[in-house]
What does this fold into?
Amino acid sequence: MKLKWLQKRITFLVIPDAASRVVRFKLSGWALSLMTFGAALLASLAITFCIGQLLLGITSRFEQTVHEKNTTIGQLQNDLVRLSRQADEIQFKMDELKKLENEMKSLTASITGGQSVPASSAAGSDTTSSSMGGDSSPVTGGDIRKLVASTGQQFAALGTEIDSLSGALAETNKQAQELQHTLTVTPSIWPVDSRTVSSNFGVRIDPFTKTASFHSGLDIAGRTNDPIYAAADGVVLSSGWNKSEGNSVLIDHGNGLRTLYMHLNELVVAKGDRVKKGELIGKMGSTGRSTGPHLHYGIFKNGAAVDPRPYLQDSKKGTKTKPPSAD
It folds into this structure.
């Protein structure tokens, strides 16, 4: 039956319009079948080509995306490794800061006479360099996860340590500033370049009356016009002359401490002036009740005269004695 249909001839009429000639052509069943098959084949090929091109484009974009993702992952891995190294470096610096903080505490305590705080040994004292070596193997996901977890823990611990250390350093800095202020207002330096002590603090034989009397300061002999320095920061309470003291300067340093400089040949400061430790305030002389050029240096604590010796930092160095030249 099918073969008979293939052997038949089929006539096709093409009528363009009513006035035009009718076109007639005949096709056998075989030809019509071949044409139908060819059209179907061409359509299939066209569809296959389009699908192939579409898949090729999708594959290309997918490969590009994978490549970009791999590049990004590689960069992130490198960044993570660098971050881990930075965490190690920060930890090393934190250890150094702890050591410095303990040394500051120890120094502050030693100056104030308090209990010394032992300095801790900084962990990881080895320094890093650019020298490297060893085998190279690919990083696994497990390695990265471990590194991420470890780095996260490091930074969390560092955050806590930084907060704690910041508070400790702030307190130590406050103590250091207070100590610095205390040192600037404490008469701890020699008020003159000479170290020749001609008369000490306490009971002595008065050079004028030749009888026992109390000497309320320290006499330091020198040459006329030798510079006289403020022993600490303070405010000049008086600067002038009287019969006993000659030209003298009295400085208030706060905390109940005052220093007195007597028998000056010349006064450089006036009442109300603010002076700094080591600043020139006058020149040595022999004015007032005096037997020769020298400085009478007195220290008063809460109104009472005290021995200046303990306040002089280098009082044990280069001290000389000579026959009295005093007030």
